[in-house]
Amino acid sequence: MNTLPHNGPRSDANRTDSFGSGEDTLRLIASLPAPEGLTDRVKANLRTAPAAGKILMWRAPLFPARGWMYTSLARGAAAAAIVCIVAGGGWRIYSHVQPGPSAKVVVMPTPATPAGSGFSTSNATRVPDTLAHPAAPAPEVNAVQKVPAQPKAVPGGKAKKKKTTRPAVAPTQ
Amino acid sequence: MSASQTLMPFWMEIADRAVDDQARQHANEKALAALVEQYATTLYRVAFSVLRNPSDAEDAVQEAFLRVLRHRHSLDEVRDHRVWLIRIVWNIVLDRKRRAKTRPETDDVDELARVLPADGLSAEQRAAAAQHHARVLACVDRLPAKERQVLILSAFEELSSVEIAAVLGITESSVRSRLFRARNLMAQLLEHPRSLR
Questions:
Q1: Which of A79, A80, B9, B11 is most buried as measured by Cβ atoms within 10 A of its Cβ?
Q2: B145 touches A: beta carbon within 8 Å
Q3: Which of A1, A15, A16, A17 to mutate: most B Cβ within 10 Å?
Q4: Whole-model pTM?
Q5: Which residue of A has its CA nearest to B154?
Q6: Rg of chain A (C-alpha set)
Q7: What is the mean pLDDT of residues A12-22?
Q8: Model ipTM?
Q9: What are the backbone dihedrals phi and psi of residue B30, each rounded to the nearest 5 degrees, phi first?
């Protein structure tokens, strides 16, 4: 039935012999005839199908392949013209560009602390507010200070010590 | 040189090209018709062996030739039209099979078993043959995908192992090893239906 090497008698494994009838089933399926008129139906389908999907093909160049415009002179001229157009356009744009008014640059003062954190003080110096200190009462100049009386010193004499008189102790008898 | 003299070869060239295009298109159509004539049946059988449904198989063949129509300008570059076409329809069929996986395959198997030819058999033998075919196909469905694909394609007499390898995009040695495994598995399954899985 089949002369191809992979479909021929299987000598590679004995156990595949039992599959012989099974493989016959697949061969039967593979040899089933196609339905009647299949070819005609496919052809008819192909005739109607391309109408929708027809694409305008630009497979060939629009201009003749051996025309005058394919000479080296014409090509060089065309290339030069393209270069001129591009360069001219660029120059035109460049020449029409007006330099804008100079920007008003605000010169930032250099930071007070060169190794600061990026913020400057704008030359502002900090003046701390003076604190309202507690007002002290003004000293009274005319006030008489009462000094406790001192015993008068007797000139030339000893100062008598005031004897403290002990109270006489009365006999309690 | 006047303008008309300059443009004359230009228009003539365009006219020639239009004629060439028409002739090329005509040739392509003829080549395509010849391909349909020659390979439509083979493609149908390949599609049917996987899909197991006549209308689905015919749809797959139609789609394959529509794809060919889209690439008709590159027909000359194809070396082996038969393998190329089988590969196209094979991919279509596998894609359809993947999409229609929700449908129970047992219906297909039973119907196919009835469709298979059983000439010269009595009614009883025919019923037994149908039962056997159904059992074989059920076992085929249980094979791993790679082995199953090789086994199905190997059933086609006109396909050599080199061509099967070209269709599946693998080497010939892979085809042989997969076929060997598939046959072993099939024998195992037919002997002990619950041996796989």
A1: B9
A2: no
A3: A16
A4: 0.55
A5: A7
A6: 65
A7: 49
A8: 0.75
A9: -65, -40
